[in-house]
Every structure is written in structure tokens, then in C-alpha cells.
Amino acid sequence: MTVSPWIGGRIIRHLCEVALLSDIETEHARNTIVALGLKPRSLELEHWPWPIRIYTLGRFSVLRQISR
């Protein structure tokens, strides 16, 4: 998947962030993020498809995204 020459990567990243935060077409947004290799503006986005998540407060856990 490539970014349209008329729509920049920053706009697509913003649209994907809004979609994830608003619970709109989240699966499509996650697939677009992964396919384009988009990086988030903030590390605090819980619903971003992080390749690895490490939780250290409370119960320690490490989650790895499984590629399809």
C-alpha cells in the first residue's frame, strides 16, 4: 500500500488516529497503519497497533503483535 500523492502521510496518520480514538473502522485503520509503517505522534495512544507492548505497573506483561 502506498500513500496517495494528493494526501500526505501526516494526514493519513491523523485520520487513522481519529478513527482509533472514535472507534470507527478500527480494523481498517490498524491495517493501514501497519501497511504504511506509520508512526504515532504520541506514545500514549492505547489503540495504536504497537508491535510490542510492555506493561510494568501493576502486573508485568509483554504483548507481541502477531503478523498475518
Low-confidence runs: none
Physical arrangement of strands within the biggest beta sheet: 1-2
- Helix content, binned percent: 25-40%
C-alpha Rg (nearest Å): 13 Å
The class by helix and strand makeup works out as alpha+beta
Shape: elongated
End-to-end Cα distance, whole Å, is 15 Å
Proportion of residues in β-strands: 5-15%
Arithmetic mean of pLDDT: 86
Largest pleated sheet: 2 strands, antiparallel
Question: Given the structure, what is the number of helices?
Answer: 2
Task: List how many beta strands DSSP finds.
Answer: 2
Order of helices and strands: HHEE
Written overview of the protein:
A hairpin with a 5-residue loop joins strand 1 and strand 2. The protein has helices spanning 9-22, 26-36, and strands at 52-55, 61-64. It starts with 8 loop residues before the first helix and ends with a strand. It has a two-stranded antiparallel ribbon with strand order 1-2. By secondary structure, the protein is of the alpha+beta class. The model has no long low-confidence stretch (mean pLDDT 86). Helix content is 37%, strand content 12%.
